[in-house]
Design goal:
- The protein is an all-alpha fold and about 130 residues long.
- Helix 1 packs antiparallel against helix 6 and helix 5 runs antiparallel to helix 6.
- The relative contact order is 0.17.
């Protein structure tokens, strides 16, 4: 069974309210961001049909590199979303990887996550 986006059904669990995600991130002083990141990784793995992202690997490398690995992750996540958009025949946001890196470098990774969540929501037809 496929949903309206042309991806296999069951992806509704990956769609979320971006405003609520941001509010929870702020209220929990960023701790909710760990959950949000894990959910986005699961969503993109689901859309790709393969396990490209691992939360534990991301967490370990972010700790080892004092967060620098997160910049690479943001680029890779955005590039994967562009790949899925192209595969599904959706409009491709080709500038998304560069925008994600720039936002992450200047410390606005929550904005990059919000933009990526919007793309995930769109891919699931929401």
């Amino acid at each position: 069974m496929e949903d309206r986006a042309g991806v296999p059904g069951g992806g509704e669990k990956f769609v979320s309210s971006i405003l609520l995600d941001i509010i929870l991130w702020i209220i929990t002083c960023g701790i909710y961001g760990l959950f949000w990141t894990a959910r986005q990784m699961k969503a993109v793995n689901y859309l790709l049909g393969r396990e490209k992202f691992s939360f534990l690997k991301w967490l370990l490398f972010c700790l080892i590199t004092c967060g620098i690995y997160h910049i690479f992750y943001e680029y890779s996540m955005a590039q994967s979303l562009v790949e899925v958009q192209g595969r599904l025949g959706r409009p491709v946001a080709s500038s998304l990887p560069v925008i994600s890196v720039i936002l992450s470098v200047i410390g606005l990774y929550i904005v990059a996550d919000a933009i990526q969540q919007d793309e995930i929501n769109r891919l699931f037809g929401r």
